[in-house]
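User: My collaborator sent over this chain with a note saying "see what the structure looks like." That's all I know about it. Can you take a look?
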Amino acid sequence: MSNRRILQLTGEDVRDFLQGLITNDIAGLEKGLVYAALLTPQGKYMSDFFVVPHTDGILLDVSEAQGDMLVQRLTMYKLRADVTITPADLYLHRGTGDVPPDGFADPRHALMGWRAYRATEQTDDTTDWTALRVAEMIPESGTELTPDTFILEVGFERLNGVDFRKGCYVGQEVTARMKHKTELRKGLARVSVTGPADPGSEITAGGKPAGTLLSRSGDQALAYLRYDRAKDEMQAGDATLTRNDI
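Assistant: Without extra context I'll predict from the sequence alone. Here is the result:
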């Protein structure tokens, strides 16, 4: 799990600070992990992470590739708030099955197992997490989650990553408008794939652009699709695709 960075946030203002920034309600920490995102003021994705209850403050479990950016952005927002952000000397451990005493259930989906934060690196994880993500349509930062992403298009509500009753946060107005006043015309879908096609391949339908192939596991894959064009067989490279999540 060396592709994750664990940050520690301490100080009297930590909870109020995060509550005004992230897409989910920090009160959920009373039950375990909180999955959330930080958005731009225009409502687009910047970073997703797990907020973790800890004996000393709060932990953030974020992609290593986003770690520096997230620290920089949080530091910019904190102004005079009593919040200190430091690296935590902890490592992410993951697994499926029963949640260990020091672990937390993954709030996105039961089949995504558990997460724990320990002082030594994990060496015993053989789970095919990509296969599980594809099966349950769970996006990953850098692949399905990019700076052009609107989080409702990739299923954040289904994944318990956004709360529409918590009040204001950065990007809240756009997200709420997409929820209540528009119908999603594009978004994440699961497709069956027959033939060779690499992630990143353009998907076409009837010769017209219909989306992009993303994470793939065997003959199943995630794709970002235009729903109006993704109704019958589609093509990506030399492969034939059909949507199978509806």
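A starting point for your reply to your collaborator: The helical segments are 14-19, 67-78, 129-136, 172-181.
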